[in-house]
Every structure is written in C-alpha cells, then in structure tokens.
Amino acid sequence: MKLSGIAASQGIVIGKAYRYENKPLSFEMHHNGDSAGEIERLDRAFSAVSKDIQALSEKTRLKLGADHAAIFEAHLEILKDPSLRWETLQRINDEKESAANAFSKVSQFFIDMFENMEDAYMRERAADIRDISAQVVNAICGVNLKSIESIDEEVILIAEDLTPSDTAKLDKNFVKGFATNIGGRTSHSAIMARTLEIPAIVGTNTVLQDTSDGDIIILDAVKGELFINPSPEVKAEYIKAIHEFEVQKKRRQLFAGLETLSLDGVHVELAANIGAPKDLDKVLANGAEGIGLYRTEFLYMDQLEVPSEEIQYEAYKKVLEGMGPKPVVIRTLDIGGDKKLPYLPLPDELNPFLGHRAIRLCLDRLDLFETQIRALLRASVHGNLKIMFPMIATIEEFNRAKAFVLKIKDKLKAEGIAVSENIEIGIMVEIPSTAVMAKQFAKVVDFFSIGTNDLIQYTFAADRMNEQVAYLYQPYHPALLSLIQNVIQASHEAGKWTGMCGEMAGDLIAIPLLLGLGLDEFSMSASSILQARELISGLKQSEVKALVQKALELDSNEAVKQLVEAFLENQK
Amino acid sequence: MKQLKFVIADPAGLHARPASVLAKEAGRFQSDIKVNANGRIGNLKSVLGIMSLGIQNGQTVEISVEGADEGDAIAAIESLLASEGLA
Q1: Residues A179-188, buried b or exposed e (16+ Cβ, 10 A)?
Q2: What is the model's pTM?
Q3: Whole-number percent of chain A with pLDDT over 90
Q4: Which of A228, A249, A251, A519 allows an S-S link to A514, with CB 3.0 to 4.6 Å?
Q5: Do A114 and B51 touch (CB under 8 A)?
Q6: What is the DSSP secondary-structure string of A178-228?
Q7: Predicted complex ipTM
Q8: Chain B partners of A122 at a C-beta cutoff of 8 Å?
C-alpha cells in the first residue's frame, strides 16, 4: 500500500512500524460525594505533571537549547493557570463530577475556543492545551501512556500527530523516521523533524489507520511517499537505491578536498544552499567552496515571534565565521508566496506568487527589514558577506533596497559599530523582466544569482504548486537557456559574476549547459556538490560551449535533454 | 482602582510567551487584575484568559487593578511591559 504526504524532513529509510496511539481513557463520570478526595487527586496530578514538564524542559534545554525549551515553560504557565483549576473545582463541587471528567470538560472548552480563533498561530495553541490535558487526565487515572521514551529498537514512528512533549522525547538512535496523519511543513512536528534531522512525512491523513505494529515501512521523505508492507520488487528497488547511494557517496568523497576544475582547467565555484547555521557541518563535509544561498526565512519560520536583531546577528555570525574567508551569500527575507509566518498575518491574495512578497514586502515593512539589515551589517566583520535581495523586478527596487542598506550602515558607524567595507550587494534573477534587462542591472549590482524555480514558473506562466501544469516546469527549454545566457553575458561584459541557486544548478543534465554558458558559481544542496564536482572534472568547457550553442537552436525541452544525454553517453 | 491603557507594540501581538510572562507577574499580587481588549474582559493572571482575547499588534489594551496592593501591582506591570518591549 502506498500513501503520500508532505515531506517535512528529507531522507529515505526502511524500518518497522511502531504505532503511537493513545486511546481515550475510560473513567467514572461522577464521584460519590467525596469532593475533597477528588480535589486531592486533581492537585496530586497537577504536581506530578508539573514535575514531568519541568524535567522535560530541562532535558530539552540541554539537548536543543533554550529556544526549544520555551514551549514547556509556556506549558507550565498553562498548567498553573488559575482559571483551569478554579473551573474544575466548581464542577467537582457543584456537579459532583469526577476530577478526570471535570478537567477534561474544562480543557475541552479552551481547546474549542482556541481552535475557533481566526489567527493560525492561536489555533495551533489548541494542541498545547490538548497535550497538557491528556497528561493531567492520565495522571489522575494513574495510567502510564504508551511511551516514546521506552522505545529501545530501531523503528519508524507512526502517529496521528506528535505533540511538543512527544517530539522532545524522540531518541534518534531508535526513531529512524516518523509519519503522521495531520500536520503541514510548518507544524511543530515538521520543524522538530528538521531540527533533529529525522526523515519525516506529515499530513498523510490515514497512516495511523493503515498501519499495524511491526509492518515494514519505506519512508521516502524525499518524494513524500510511504509504502506499507511493500512488494518485494519495491523493497528491493529501495534497498538497491539506498545501497547505491552509499557506494557513490564513498567514491565521491574523494572529491571533497579538491577544487572544482574542468578537464581543460576552467575553475568554477561549487557552493551550498543552507537554511540554518547547523547546516554548516554538511556544507564543510561536502567540500563546498562557499555558501551561494542562505535562506534566512527559516530563521523566521521556526520561531514563535519575529527573531530579534541579536538572534539574527548570532546566526549570521556563526555562518560567516564557520566559512572563514569563503564567500557567503545571504538572501534577505523572502516571505509571502507559499511561505507564511504564523505571527505575521498577511492578507490572503488571489495570486500569492505574483503578490506582495519578498523584497516588495520588505520595502513596505522597513521595520522588519531594518532589523535584518542591522544584524547582517554587524555580522559582516566576521567573514566574507555578500547581501542578496530576492524578487527584484526593476532597477528602482534595487536602488531603494541598496540605499536603505547604505543608510543603516552609516547609522551603525555613527553608533561606533564596525561594518565591513567589502560587502558585495547583488540580486536574485527570478523575474523575466530582470533577466531581459541584465545589461542595465549589471551596471548597478555587484552580482547576479539566478533563482531557477521562480524564473521557470514566471517564464512559462505556470504555478509550480499546481500539479496540473507541472509539465511546464521545463528547465532545459531554449527559452530559459537564452535568458540565462543573456544574464551571464551581461555580467561578464560589466566585469561582474553570475551564480545560480535554484534546483537546476545541481541538475546533472543542466550542469554541462551551464558550464558552457560560462556560469561562475553553482549553488545547490550540500549533498549534491560532490556528484557535481565529479561531473565537471570530466568535462571540457570548450566542448560544452559548442554543445550549448546547439541546444539554443533546438525547439523544445525534450530535444535539449536528449542532446545532453547523448553527449554525456559519449563521454563515458 | 488603578488603570493602565496602552497600545501593543509587538509585531506578533500578545502571544504565548509574553502572555505567560504577564500572567506570572500578575499572579504575584493579591489584587484583582483584569485585561480589557477587543470589547472583552479577561483575567490577567490567566495565560489562557489573556491569549483568548487574541490581542494583535496596534490594538489598545486596558489593564485595571483593584485591591490592597494595586499600587505595587500596576507599577510592576508597567515596568514589565516596558522591559518586554510590549508597549
């Protein structure tokens, strides 16, 4: 059986299912007149749960840091909330309800109230109350939950949803991955899966119902697919895929310490895309020559409120110091479109990808922008920083954003804060107007970085979230190659450089074409770098230049793809 | 009775963390402490009560304190609002 969901944290694993399900408890609805006894049971349960949460908070603080422990401090406050206890007491006294029944009803009232709120952030808080409520009711009944902590063999965890206290108990030595019925990319469980680097698929709707304990599960959290008791063929295919992956990984490891040189001695830079400072380990292990894209929106997405200047400064500093003299391109906040922040409600738009997002939003919300620019400029003295603005459509937008950066720089210097004098300021090229106007842009920007996911969707007018038009995602189409050629040529004529930070930069068919077009920097997921370096080391730029000229004369994505495949086949 | 009126100046509004900090502080005092926003009234000692008002950035909030230690309570809340950057 095959299910699909949202790949919340990438990776592929095969393992045994461990169903984590807590059925509703049964308890007496009313007591026989001993209100004082019920109240004593309630208070004993409160103090037991409070102790558990404190212990969990401390454990989380040590394991993942104070940020992640904050949620448990909030849980403690909710548990101590006088209205919870007071209303439960009233029901015990006046209605003769048992402690478990009374407390369930009171917490259900609050859960309903939060679930009905307009604000998405507040709706998610209902999960916090449900989490606490279950713990208290269990403690009243003296029942131990089926516990995540007691797992002592390698499993794939299957659940309806995972609460903050569940995820804090996950031991990645045993839990190799998880899948849940509900949740999205920004739900708590998804964020924690990425933090812990455990492959996870959320939002499958029915995985808990469809699985039994001990079932063999293939969790393909790259494609977002999950197989329950797969056929021998599928299983063999995945075992082979995982094995090949390991063998290749070893062979490619040889390229980790090398420069990226083509067979005829042309040097290009292979850089990595990252979302957080913790990604640096992988970046360095894979021998990246820089960071081509630091997506700062994750700093904003994995938080409960707008990250302060200090939090941002620390993150940027960590990345810059970690990379030493190597270049680090940090992209300013790219929010809107498919990326939303729970605490920053934005009006719904008919066409969010064509709407008020990225630099457009930042130039309107200079308060948000200023915090980030200050943090970036302060961090600039710790390494080789390059600042990049996303979604630039006109020269005026770039000029406004750059002028704002320079203004903040002057302000900082007046405050006596040191700022590097060698910060390049460039733009993402992801809007066709910008690609066409590259010659004029090249006079004012320090560099270009082509964002192919958006450039493709805007060039072919095809929403990349819409499955029905997915066939229009055509990365090798001559229309796109010609835009890319225009950008690279314009930058070189002005003595500037061009990088690429979309999926395409790490694509093995696209790489020969991009090398032929003269791309200076290829930025991709760290895990793709070694295979890209291996490929480039076997190519001659003089040959791929001729190849791309042929490709530009063709009339379709498919024709170009076949041309490159035939070329690569001949190389072997 | 002492009163305090202010405009929330946190881009995230009055969310879980600031609400729990306020409830904790309010809980230290004997006085009855109410929070009034969006035309509804909640108990400032209750983190659920505060959060249930759904207070967002830019909204006006009124806090009223009544009881033996109302003077100390209102001063403590006022300085907390300032130190947390909420008002």
Answers
A1: bbbbbebbbb
A2: 0.60
A3: 58
A4: A519
A5: yes
A6: EEESS--TTSHHHHHHHHHT--EEE--SSHHHH--TT-EEEEETTTTEEEE
A7: 0.70
A8: 51, 54
